[in-house]
Specification:
Strand order of the largest sheet: 5-4-7-2-9
Strand content: 35-45%
Structural class: mainly beta
Oligomer: single chain
Distance between the termini: 74 Å
Low-confidence stretches: 1-17, 19-23, 141-148
Order of helices and strands: HEEEEEEEEEEE
Number of strands: 11
Largest sheet: 5 strands, antiparallel
Length: 148
């Protein structure tokens, strides 16, 4: 049986698209790790949407105080991020670790843990409304003055 060059090219292309060409090299199963399983609050299932946001903090960089209207699941791709959501303990998440933020959770701190290296994470927002993904917040001191 003769195999034509176009057939070989099609097979190679299919393999490359399948799983980065790895599926065609080995019959060994690829290890799979469940990074996080998270129960979610009740949502309106008729209008769900998912937004995936990539965030990069330069060395020493942080975000201003903010909140999210939707539940958020995050995965740290590079570096380490320091987070503190109101009512929870402050935490540092490193490469390969995940985090969860409930809807309405107020970020008191969201920052790169390092002053030398950038940090990058991906956040998935599961929303059931068209509300903004993030809302900037201001803080009032005991005298009622607004602080940014």
């Amino acid at each position: 049986m003769m195999i034509s060059i176009p057939s070989v090219c099609r097979f190679t292309l299919i393999c490359a698209l399948a799983v980065g060409a790895g599926a065609c090299r080995s019959a060994e199963p690829t290890p799979v790790r469940i990074a996080r399983t998270q129960a979610l609050p009740s949502l309106d299932g008729g209008s769900l949407r998912v937004s995936m946001v990539e965030v990069t903090y330069l060395p020493g960089e942080s975000s201003p105080r903010h909140a999210h209207n939707c539940p958020v699941i995050g995965y740290v791709v590079d570096g380490a991020v320091r987070m503190h959501v109101e009512g929870e303990s402050p935490a540092v998440y490193r490469r390969g670790e995940t985090f969860y933020e409930p809807p309405g959770g107020v970020h008191l701190v969201s920052a790169n843990e390092s002053r030398e290296l950038p940090a990058r994470f991906v956040a998935w927002f599961l929303c059931d409304s068209d509300a903004p993904l993030s809302v900037a917040l201001t803080v009032a001191d005991p005298d009622g003055r607004r602080l940014e």
